[in-house]
Amino acid sequence: MRNAQKQKKRRSTAGNKRFKKSRQAAPQPKQVRPDGTIRLNKAIAQSGVASRREADALIADGRVAVNGVLAEMGSFVLPTDDITIDGRAIRKKIKRIYMAFNKPVGVECTTDRRVKDNIIDFIGYPERIFPIGRLDKDSEGLILLTNDGDIVNPILRADNAHQKEYIVTVNKPITDQFIAQMSAGVAILDTVTLPCKVTKIGTNRFNIVLVQGLNRQIRRMAEALGYRVTALKRVRIMNIRLAKLKLGTYRILSKGEMAQLMQIIDA
Fold it and tell me: Active-site residue 136, yes or no?
């Protein structure tokens, strides 16, 4: 009887171990399979019609069909398959657009065209594009836009620690203590900001390079130290620089910039 109980206990323990091991080793869903098929949301994103997340929402709402059959979440498609959204075929091949825009103060980084001064209407580009991330309405400077849904997450993912550089003007003279505290990290939003590089470049101006993107981070950091930001301009995202791009204008990224960007985000 005692031996039977021991064997039962060993089997139960082994079962738990197998369960834990299987959970830890669970593979991530693949986007491309050996037979050449790709996940449907990726195919839609590649067409430039929507991002992967937007594509998932369209599929869940029953608005996507493959070869005339209502699509299911997580399905795979061939390059030759006919994909439609609301009955309209998506373009299988589209020219990728990667754009740098010098956003003026007052422009909203939203694709919702019902919003006054939205970035899409302001730029007036003839193809569908969307901003990668955000820049506050009361801030100006560099923001990237694209029609490539696959590039968005690798750029925005917080754990990738991609650099963003800003020039900031505050309402009173900057002290060495302010620079030291900003560099070391400031308590905001129930956390402490990561250490960053801060350089004084004028009586009331400093340069700061961040690797995280908390909501209104620089403004909140300055306020926590008794300062108020009066002007904020983003001048660099990773290897892409604002340089001499005029306020309110855009330019298409060069092949060299894109090659380096893709290397940085490992895409």
Answer: yes
pLDDT at 13: 47
Please give the pLDDT value at position 36: 64
The count of residues in the chain is: 267
Which CATH class name applies to 163-237?
alpha beta
Phi and psi angles of residue 247, each rounded to the nearest 5 degrees, phi first:
-60, 130
The answer, as to whether pTM is greater than 0.70, is no
| Distance between CA atoms of residues 62 and 64, nearest Å | 6
Average pLDDT of span 130-135 = 92
- B/e letters for 41-58, b = 16+ CB within 10 Å, e = fewer, are bbbbbbbbbbbbebbbeb
When pLDDT is cut at 50, 70 and 90, the band that residue 91 belongs to is low
Strand partners, 236: 165, 241
**Residue of 35, 136, 190, 266 marked catalytic:** 136
Q: Where in the chain is the domain with CATH 3.10.290.10?
A: 38-89
> Which among 97, 96, 88, 127 is positioned nearest to 111, based on CA atoms?
127
Alpha-carbon Rg for the chain in angstroms: 24
Residue 154 has a pLDDT of 87
Instruction: Say whether domain 38-89 belongs to CATH 1.10.10.10.
Output: no
Instruction: Domain 98-157+242-265: state its class.
Output: alpha beta
Residue for token pair 């825009």: 101
